[in-house]
Amino acid sequence: MNKERKNIGLAMLLIFSSLLVCLDRIFWQSSPDILINDKVNIQQSLMQIYHASTLIGIDIFAITLGSLLQGSEDKSWSSAIKYWIYTIFVGTLGLLVLTLFSREFSIGDLYNMLFPFVRNTYGILSGIVLGMLTLPLFNKGVKKYENIIKLSLLLVIIAPTIFNKDIFGFANGTVFGYILVNLGFYGNYIRSKLSVKKVVTRIILLLLTNIIVVSLMPEFSKAIHNDLSTAGRFTNSASALLILLAFYIVLLVSKIKVNVKNGYVDFIIYTAWALLVISNNQTLLNKLIEYNRKTAQSVTRWILAKDIKEILWLMLIVILSNFIILGICKLIGISQKISNFYDIRADEELSQFFYRITNGIKSWLKAHQVYLATIAWGYFLAIFSFLMMNTKWTVAPNVDVKYNIFTYTIGVRQAMVLVNAIIFLLFLKFIFSLTNRYWFSTIVASLLWIIWVVANRIKIGIRNEPILPSELSMIKAWRSLLGMVDGWILLLVVSVIVITIPIIYFLEKKYRLPKQKWYSRVAWLIIIPVIFSSVTFLNHEKICNPHNFWWNR
């Protein structure tokens, strides 16, 4: 049993801040009526104060998480890996749910979910994860260069606020998240050096300063520019005043000595993290905002009430989902495997840790080289199938545009190539789950794929169209169909089959790979048909409309 304990107050602050972020993202991007106010009055000032009170959520979240993680540098790398995998899972699951209910799908959205770092899908979260990876270096450096680190953090926070320019790329999000989580690391490091009285005094001063500055900015903007173009100068998450206020709020809560078991706090962190993933997922956010505009009719109080209700429902759904997801992860042991590999051991120097990780990755690549080669083979077959569907070396998707088929396939149609590669790999996995023979499954799946491609190519050559789904029933008349195929092609197919049989037998005997567990086979035999069968209803009108479900009738 894990006997380590963490601050429950910080964990609850994490939940509260994530709810503020959700409210900020949903409400303020819904274009509420309150934004129509372009006059300098009490309402304008109150609007700026309210907006700032939701914008501080992301500052509190990142700083709080940094404070929670700072004392666990030995687990910082494994935490970063776990949170990032969880980010990809939650985002992809959200996209699948959106596709099911809206019957709309974009391959760009899929890329954003599967490769969030390189696509900059979640800038703040990416920065936080990077901060986790560099936490061991931070802890090592802060003991020697505390003043330099303190001054550097202050400079990065204050300079953009003074000059009103995004000189450090805060708008991008990743740098901002990295700075905030490091500020949390530093806050936990100096926590014992500041008394509660000092912290409370600074919170009061910063709170009053924020209220005064934020509420007066519309007046200054009108006086200087004769408009409200700079009314929100300090109403943003990157304002030094908001960041410092969040910093001291986290320090105050961290001084409350109420600790509980690590497992409870970790569950709360994952819940808050999932809420951040959803609130920063622009695709899901846009759909929710669009739904709100239709149902709330752009009335501010209705939208606000609806947003709060939706956020609470969302939190409940996330909590219930976390019980299932984290339970499954514990059952299959993936969390423990990541910890065993990425945790820094007590007797390890950082150089030894990096050397072990590098060697471990090399060993993993070597152990899985066959499976990685199969993925590359599936990608090649996907490209091959696209090229075979062309009768010329050029393709003209538009009247005035021509492409070389290689450029068009690998460049313009890259998304569909990847989709075809995934389809092939799922088909292979299905056969593997049936037979539990890897080499047999790979070769048979490849042959069937190639035969299908060649059959389509023959059909295109004869009638300038591929095989249509309705024509599959003609397989019963296989003798007539064989009569339409050249003799050399039939001879080639028979020869390939004859040669393949001993090859499969040799590979299964000489290079036998580990078999799947029975529960894994059953799971894949259920999942894969469901994925393939989804095409039978996702493209039908009103099938996935939630208003047609029985509880809405």
In words, what does this structure look like?
It is a single chain. The protein is mostly helical. Helices cover 72% and strands 3% of the residues. Helix 1 packs parallel to helix 11, helix 1 (8-28) packs across helix 13 and helix 2 (42-69) crosses helix 9 (196-225). The protein contains 22 helices and 4 strands. The radius of gyration is 29 Å and the shape is globular. It has helices at 8-28, 42-69, 76-102, 107-114, 123-133, 135-142, 146-163, 174-190, 196-225, 240-254, 262-279, 282-296, 300-332, 334-342, 350-367, 369-388, 405-412, 414-435, 438-463, 478-483, 487-510, 518-533, and strands spanning 5-7, 259-261, 394-398, 401-404.
Task: Enumerate how many helices there are, as a single number.
Answer: 22
Q: Give the mean pLDDT.
A: 81
Helical content class: over 70%
What is the rounded distance between the termini? 49 Å
How many DSSP E strands?
A: 4
Characterize the main sheet.
2 strands, antiparallel
Q: SSE order, as H and E?
A: EHHHHHHHHHHEHHHHHHEEHHHHHH
Strand order of the largest sheet: 1-2
